[in-house]
Design goal:
There is one protein chain. The chain is of the alpha+beta class. The chain has a domain at 69-196. Helices cover 13% and strands 32% of the residues. The protein contains four helices and 16 strands. The strands form four sheets. The protein has a seven-stranded mixed beta sheet with strand order 3-4-5-6-7-13-8. The chain is elongated, with a radius of gyration of 23 Å. The two termini are 17 Å apart. The relative contact order is 0.15. Bound molecules: 2-acetamido-2-deoxy-beta-D-glucopyranose (NAG) (8 copies). One 2-acetamido-2-deoxy-beta-D-glucopyranose (NAG) binds next to loops.
Length: 240
């Protein structure tokens, strides 16, 4: 039985690979400067999904955008597969002038997903809509028409222990990797922030058993396509 499987597997490998102009479905792709590989995947018209929905990307004007993110506007700029993290830029933020119609918390935009904001980030604190005339200590004034104040805080999440934030203002928290040029909070938002993902190891297990990962139902129904049929997890399991 095992030998048969091996012969089958080697036969499959003899099938002609797709030509360079027409890469195999689900093989790595590029978008702008980004190489897209598992667990990320690029959506393509008429092609079945190649991965989980959270990792679905579309390529728009050389930007790789997470299709299922808030308004589809999270751009993936760098992926570190070796430690399951990536740098994302939230295009919902006011990346041109730093003055949004209203401020919001980044964590609200992520919703249900396998992504968490890494504690490798620091936090950009913005105080806005203050009901009293205040210049909170340690903060700088933005140049926005709606008066607001910003400063670079500590490790992402640490504002929860901060005392003395003026209660007369609303607080918004944006993860940033730091302030790259002095104190420009706008360029820090443009630079993006680090997200980490957790992933079930279903696809690596399936591939290790000689199968191909399949994601039916818009990417939610995982199955393993083996030489002798489709299995729920991996190849070589005896059928009941
Ligand atoms: C690609 O990388 C180059 C050099 O690092 C950079 O100047 C350019 O803006 C990048 N393009 C995109 C679309 O990210
Ligand atoms: C692509 O980006 C442009 C502007 O950058 C935007 O107007 C357009 O709606 C985007 N298209 C898709 C399919 O996201
Ligand atoms: C993963 O590695 C990259 C490159 O070394 C690093 O910049 C990033 O902070 C790491 N991510 C985590 C979550 O440690
Ligand atoms: C100021 O904030 C209000 C809502 O609080 C908003 O409608 C208005 O557009 C903002 N003005 C500017 C210049 O961003
Ligand atoms: C952002 O989160 C902080 C706590 O982490 C909360 O105090 C604040 O009200 C939130 N701001 C908005 C605009 O939701
Ligand atoms: C600003 O504060 C007022 C009252 O303090 C509140 O009614 C309003 O919703 C706030 N606006 C924003 C954009 O947070
Ligand atoms: C505020 O601005 C001043 C002058 O530009 C700068 O020296 C200082 O570092 C800034 N403070 C913060 C918290 O960004
Ligand atoms: C399983 O893989 C074979 C060979 O690549 C392919 O012909 C078949 O359509 C696949 N089945 C499913 C359900 O994806």
């Amino acid at each position: 039985m095992i030998r048969l499987l091996l012969i089958f597997a080697s036969l499959l490998r003899l099938l002609p690979p797709g030509s360079a102009a027409d890469p195999l479905p689900c093989s790595p792709r590029t978008c702008g400067n980004l190489s897209i590989a598992y667990p990320f995947w690029l959506e393509e018209d008429g092609q079945p999904p190649c991965g989980a929905p959270s990792f679905q990307l579309n390529c728009n004007a050389s930007q790789a955008l997470l299709s299922r993110s808030m308004f589809g506007s999270y751009q993936v700029v760098q992926v570190f597969a070796e430690n399951s993290s990536f740098v994302a830029v939230d295009n919902n933020l006011p990346l041109d002038d730093g003055c949004p119609k209203f401020w919001f918390n980044i964590s609200l935009g992520l919703g249900l997903s396998p992504f968490v904001v890494s504690n490798k980030n620091r936090e950009l604190l913005v105080l806005h809509n203050c009901s009293k005339q205040v210049m909170p200590p340690g903060f700088n004034r933005t140049r926005c028409a709606n008066e607001s104040f910003y400063r670079l805080g500590g490790v992402y999440g640490s504002h929860r222990e901060l005392a003395g934030l003026p209660p007369a203002c609303s607080l918004s928290v944006v993860p940033v990797l730091g302030f790259p040029d002095g104190n420009s909070y706008v360029s820090s938002m443009r630079q993006g922030f680090l997200l980490e993902w957790t992933l079930s190891d279903e696809c690596p297990k399936c591939e290790a058993s000689g199968g191909q990962c399949r994601y039916a139902n818009a990417g939610t129904g995982f199955s393993c396509n083996c030489s002798d049929g489709v299995r729920p997890d991996k190849c070589g399991e005896s059928r009941k």
